[in-house]
Specification:
Helix content is 22%, strand content 36%. By secondary structure, the protein is an alpha+beta fold. A hairpin with a 3-residue loop joins β41 and β42.
């Protein structure tokens, strides 16, 4: 269950409470006693999610329990890994149809159970029942995905949704049972609308309508693992080729493995209600996943297995249509140990330049080369794509000094792309869906940046590529490159625009990098990555640790957040070309993301990770305050602080310094010399706690403009739901500021 639960006794009686598991045994540390007016903080770590528990509560005057007010409620434990629950005894005892416990349970069950609902028009003995799902299909889903321990518990979960009106009987008065019974889903129910929506599925072999429930990404991020929620959605009918060459239709699911909890298995069954395996392919056995090239219908998936697999050869699957085939290929490739040349190209930034025909022709001309750990790559007139392993980039400094490590590249990456540039060769950029890299020797390379021209001789450094571990690279030799360009000569110009002009444009429009000179920009570009996203693909979820800064190169994305009070997903911002986000991750690496970012169209991003940023700052000997100057100027413009109205924002930024604080750190105390004025940034969700001897202020701010704290007076200016709040407090007696945020700016 996780999280913390604060229980406050707000009635005039003594209260005792116990929590019992499904066998009616007392849960350890859940035997609570509260006097009137007292509060107990209880951890939920010992409570198992999706298991049934019973809360028993007695309220009296401390005498016998049979003279007390009694309360008993059975419920399924829910996730509480983000919020701290605060509940009053009066709320528990209130005679409501749906109390606080039932509401939290209901929201949880909607998110856990409804993704297993397969809504179709059902044909039963010639009669069509529109938009129904089958009870025992849903029970099977809950058991196989380990949502419910048994069929009885699965039925109990679904019965709760039936009583709440989320499930509706097709036949009036029908109870929910593990049987071939039709039910409908009321997707207009208030709780359902806050947790997700129905979307039409392409996974069909006939003309019947087919819908699945998709949980909002921000809602999914509040669960144990949002990536598990993604995997659960991958199930449906596929044809499997037998060893005799016949195609047999089976129902496939990606399931958690019984033997290794952290791994998964591609399992298939005779039908949608069977729990008996017909066969399986452990995901740890998958070497490569690709479309079968000889299939003109573009519907066949080829799964190549590792040599040590108990299954021999390859597994062939056939999807009902090309779109479903692509969905399964993408899902299964997440488990593959390596990618085919075609998929390496498809998942790289090259896909934004190449057509499908170009991808196939380009992949055919790539040669596989294995590189030993420590081996350097010295074929400078060759283009490379990293398929497997890690490649380190080292900067060669002055003579006599050993090369300095700059950054590390992982699959997928490319380098040596300057061979495609029109005219002059430019400093390189690595691409990454996972990562990318750049061209070697830079003695005489010239970089075009608008009106600026840079000779890399003045930079005085060269680049060395070295394998950090056993790696596999796909190389395009000069001969194969010329053969490819003979058929697709227009690619050279397209790549030049994307890798040089387009990147320069993005950097020039990013305030974060406006203070860099041309030489510094050239080195920064070597540390950038391309990161490609498909439509509806999630870049990161709310709550995940942040380690990268992003610039939108092409496409559109949305930033969403889960509104706890209203229980719904809120779109905070739409991102378009040249927008940037996530710079705070470079200053405070690992800080949890405050929102979910998802692509609404095919998108290409530039990213800079924290390790590369640190290396860049070290090699260029830059001060972070100079890098953040434009960002700080923007913060002052948004602050609207009267004291600074007549002072140049540029001069203010020059006098600013970035500092970071861990949660719980004292920013200043009573008696400290008041020579600093802290200003919190960026405009994200913050919690500021100011503690005084006679005054206690606690503010929860969704969008912070600024927070100024000075010795002798406190001024807090915030923008919450477009409402401006100003607070003054004297600090003569005792004052200390308790930091619950991580980053602030102060002026000398």
């Amino acid at each position: 269950m996780g999280g913390k639960i604060s229980i406050h006794n707000d009635i005039e009686k003594h209260v005792s409470a116990v929590l019992l598991d499904r066998r009616r045994n007392l849960v350890e540390s859940w035997n609570l006693k509260l006097k009137p007016g007292h509060t107990i903080e209880q951890r939920g770590d010992g409570v198992i999610v999706n298991e049934p528990y019973t809360l028993k509560l007695f309220a009296g005057n401390g005498s016998a329990q049979n003279e007390s007010t009694k309360f008993e409620r059975r419920f399924f434990a829910f996730y509480n890994n983000v919020i701290d629950l605060k509940v009053k005894i009066s709320e528990i005892l209130a005679k409501k149809r749906r109390g606080w416990l039932q509401l939290l349970q209901l929201k949880h069950l909607v998110g856990e159970v409804l993704p297993g609902v397969r809504i179709e028009d059902r044909d039963y003995y010639g009669e069509i029942y529109e938009e129904c799902f089958i009870a025992n299909e849903l029970v099977t889903y809950l058991i196989l995905h380990k949502v419910a321990r048994s069929a009885d518990l699965a039925v109990e979960m679904c019965s709760i949704l039936l009583r709440e009106g989320i499930f509706q009987e097709v036949i009036e008065g029908q109870e929910f049972m593990n049987d071939f019974i039709f039910f409908r889903l009321d997707d207009s129910h208030q709780v359902v609308r806050t947790q997700g929506r129905l979307q039409k599925s392409l996974d069909t072999w006939d003309n019947m309508s087919n819908y699945r429930f998709h949980t909002f990404t921000a809602t999914a991020s509040r669960m144990l693992s949002p990536r598990v929620v993604e995997i659960r959605a991958h199930e449906g009918w596929l044809e499997k080729k037998s060893k005799f060459g016949f195609w047999q239709i089976r129902f496939f699911r990606i399931l958690p493995s019984d033997e290794v909890r952290s791994s998964s298995t591609l399992a298939y069954f005779n039908d949608t209600v069977s729990t008996e395996l017909k066969g399986e392919v452990p995901t740890t056995d998958i070497q490569q996943v690709e479309r079968y090239e000889r299939d003109r219908s573009n519907r066949i998936i080829c799964i190549k297995l590792v040599p040590e697999s108990k299954l021999r050869g390859s597994v062939y699957l056939r999807a009902p249509n090309p779109d479903v085939c692509e969905r399964w290929v993408v899902a299964l490739q997440k488990f593959a140990k390596s990618l085919s040349p075609v998929d390496v190209v498809k998942r790289s930034a090259l896909m934004f330049v190449f057509t499908d025909k170009m991808v196939r022709e380009f992949a055919k001309r790539l040669e596989l080369k294995k590189v030993r750990r420590g081996q350097s790559i010295e074929e400078f007139d060759t283009f490379y794509l990293l398929r497997q392993g890690k490649i380190g980039i080292f900067i060669q400094g002055k003579e006599g000094k050993a090369p300095e490590f700059y950054c590390e590249r992982t699959p997928i990456c490319f380098f040596g792309e300057s061979v495609f540039h029109v005219g002059s060769r430019s400093p390189t950029l690595r691409s990454r869906r996972f990562s990318f890299s750049r061209s070697p020797k830079m003695e005489s390379i010239k970089l075009s940046m608008g009106s600026r021209r840079l000779s890399m001789r003045s930079y005085g450094k060269s680049v060395i590529y070295k394998a950090m571990e056993e790696s596999e690279i796909l190389r395009l030799t000069p001969e194969h490159r010329e053969a490819f360009l003979k058929n697709f000569g227009e690619v050279r110009g397209r790549l030049d625009v994307m890798l040089r002009v387009g990147i320069d444009r993005c950097l020039e429009k990013t305030p974060f990098f406006k203070e860099l000179n041309a030489a510094q920009v050239a080195q920064l570009k070597m540390g950038l990555h391309f990161h490609s996203l498909k439509k509806d693909e999630v870049l990161f979820y709310e709550g995940e640790p942040g380690r990268d800064f992003f610039i939108v190169y092409a496409g559109t994305l949305v930033i969403s957040q889960y509104d706890i009070q209203n229980g719904r997903e809120v779109i905070l911002k739409k991102l378009k070309k040249d927008d940037n986000f996530g710079e705070i991750a470079l200053l405070v690496p690992g800080m949890p993301r405050t929102a979910t970012v998802k692509a609404t169209d095919d998108a290409l991003l530039l990213s800079l990770d924290e390790d590369t940023f640190k290396s860049f700052m070290r090699l260029t000997q830059l001060d972070v305050n100079r890098i953040m100057k434009q960002d700080m100027m923007s913060t002052f413009e948004k602050c609207e602080i009267p004291f600074f109205e007549n002072i140049s924002k540029e001069k203010l930024a020059e006098r600013c310094k970035i500092e970071t604080f861990d949660a719980g750190t004292d920013i200043f105390k009573e008696g400290d010399f008041g020579d600093k004025s802290p200003s919190l940034t960026p405009a994200q969700k913050k919690t500021i706690k100011l503690e005084f001897k006679h005054t206690h202020i606690h503010m929860h701010v969704m969008k912070m403009r600024t927070s100024l704290c000075g010795c002798g007076r406190v001024l807090v200016r915030a923008n919450t739901a477009h409402k401006l709040t100003r607070t003054h407090a004297r600090t003569h007696k005792h004052a200390r500021t308790h930091a619950h945020t991580h980053t602030h700016t102060h002026t000398h």
